[in-house]
Amino acid sequence: MSMLQVQGLKVAYGGIQAVKGIDFEVAAGEVVCLIGANGAGKSTTLKALARMVPAQGSVRYDGHDILHLPPHALVGRGLALVPEGRGVFGRLTVAENLRMGAYTRRDTPEIARDLESVFELLPRLRERQRQTAGTLSGGEQQMLAIGRALMGRPRLLLLDEPSMGLAPIMVQKVFEVIRSVSQQGMTILLVEQNARLALAIASRGYVMESGTITLTDAAATLLDDPRVREAYLGGE
To answer: Cβ of 98: how many Cβ atoms within 10 Å?
Structure first.
């Protein structure tokens, strides 16, 4: 059963069509990736799903059309976006950032338990919990952004370019965290320029070019596709 069904999604910026009527779906418990070159419309697609930019078409989440809902209402329904650039609150501590992720919740004992779970998943954050988020490295901020999203107890996690700007060792760690979260049953839609990493972690993938979806298949099949190899994997 599809948790997310997108049909005819269009997004325009000042007359320029950034997303040109795309269709895709994500089943419950699945990890699906959107890959493509910079400017293909991948991040814009995620922003449209999270209601950060106006869009047209049909977006059904859990059987309900959500394109008319404000962004904060989606959080309460279990849809969370980890934005490109991380968007942590630099002057708040790590612990305060994490608690901000639970701002729609009122179940205080459960919030405390979830905070402990996030610290178990991301031990670096436990060590840094009293530090202000602005003093963390880029990789630590990315982990904090993921941890903050998890504090909202999402059912669908939207990840926008989690590897961007990170040192290779931190990229590896961030993807280990994503894999661990997916193994716990989280449904994930991943936008990522590093096509090899994304396809290695996903069950299915969609290739975006110039605002349209040009290819879709099982992730392993896309990894072996000569067109994908030539365009996104350095022709290896």
So the answer is: 25
